[in-house]
Amino acid sequence: MSSKIPVGVVTGKDLVALLEDARNRGYAIPAVNCTSSCTVNAVLEAASKSKSPIMIQVSNGGGTYYLGKGIKDPNASAAGSVALAYHVRAVASYYGVPVVLHSDHCAKKLLPWFDAMLAADKEYYDKFGEPLFSSHMLDLSEETDEENIDICVKYFKKMSAMDIWLEMEIGITGGEEDGVNNEDVDPEKLYTTPEQVWAVYQALSPISPMFSIAAAFGNVHGVYKPGNVVLSPEKLGKHQAYAKQKLGCVEDKPLFLVMHGGSGSTASEIATAVSNGVVKMNIDTDTQWAFWDGIRGFESSNREYLQAQIGNPKGKDKPNKKFYDPRVWLRKGQESMCKRVMDSCEKLSAVGTFEPRFGQGAPQIAEKGGKKELNVISVAVGCLAIGVAVGMAIAKK
Ligand SMILES: [Zn+2]
């Protein structure tokens, strides 16, 4: 990997260089949904240990959770997503690898969330010359292709002015319930066609090269019963071939593709997807389970030390603080989640793709032209920016 790619949150040209590196060298970056500082740090730790770039992504519901479930506010998801983004910016560079800060699926009804995140990006861009987030996803795949692409074009123009990457989805992703919903759907529709993908490319490429496409290839969200839908990652190669032929280019993989529904996929399915130009794969369900499984194992082995503050098999007056301190059992969740993310790095051929550079850690709140301003003032400015972003979000309602 080019040593020019900085550690910590990457945006703009650095992000393009990173994703080109992934596509050219045939690896993909795990994109893990995070809902807390605890899970963010577990994912960053995994990236650091795997010597891999990483993506931290926040969903609409994840943002609401990050702000605090006790807060009922129409802008809760945006305020929480922005707070998570600032957390990542404060800690990412200490882990020594490049980090992509991304927001997950945004359907039509969630566009106010998207607008508020873009407002925070703008605020940040005006101060520091780069967006707060590296990238955002718009998912209008439930709408007609025409409307989907039109809305993406409209937003992409705004985003490209701030050097923000756009991920969009086209085609039907399965996995709603137990397969009943899919029975009436033409199975062909679970697979995006090369023509659909090309239509997206044609509409977006004149605006900026900074976009990726989530095309459906029989993938579903969540872990599902095998046999319900046939995963066909080889179909992604057809999108690349079609685009190559249309463009008449030498590049075999002109498109940046992403894979959703990575949980539960086999190593060979993932490898096929990556060989066809998938540069990012989402992981959520499996890391949720991993986090819980670490805590479950700890509780199960230490149950008798976790029933009261005082009193365990070693004596009725013995304290149990070393067992119930959240740093102890949440750490077990982190360790287990970290291990699962490292597994994904392995499956995506991302291990060892970036030699971590430590000793460059600093809150990455104020970065201009690649030159870090490593001081307390920049953190204070960052905190102020959070206040402004949240204030704007509240004022907008
Ligand atoms: Zn998804």
Automatic annotation (TrEMBL):
What PROSITE patterns does its record include?
ALDOLASE_CLASS_II_1, ALDOLASE_CLASS_II_2
Record-linked InterPro entries: Aldolase_TIM, FBA_II, Fruct_bisP_bact
Q: What class of enzyme is it?
A: lyase
Q: What cofactor(s) does the depicted protein rely on?
A: Zn(2+)
The GO biological-process annotations, alphabetized, read as: gluconeogenesis; glycolytic process
Please give the pathway this protein is involved in: Carbohydrate degradation; glycolysis; D-glyceraldehyde 3-phosphate and glycerone phosphate from D-glucose: step 4/4
Q: Which reaction does it catalyse?
A: beta-D-fructose 1,6-bisphosphate = D-glyceraldehyde 3-phosphate + dihydroxyacetone phosphate
Q: Name one GO molecular function term.
A: fructose-bisphosphate aldolase activity
Matches recorded under CDD domains: FBP_aldolase_IIA
Provide the alphabetized UniProt keywords: Glycolysis, Lyase, Membrane, Metal-binding, Transmembrane, Transmembrane helix, Zinc
Q: What is its EC number?
A: 4.1.2.13
Instruction: Tell me a GO cellular component.
Output: cytosol
Q: Where are the transmembrane segments?
A: 374-395
Which NCBIfam families does this one have?
Answer: cbbA, FruBisAldo_II_A, PRK09197.1
Q: What's its job?
A: Catalyzes the aldol condensation of dihydroxyacetone phosphate (DHAP or glycerone-phosphate) with glyceraldehyde 3-phosphate (G3P) to form fructose 1,6-bisphosphate (FBP) in gluconeogenesis and the reverse reaction in glycolysis.
Q: Which family does it belong to?
A: Belongs to the class II fructose-bisphosphate aldolase family.
Q: What protein am I looking at?
A: fructose-bisphosphate aldolase
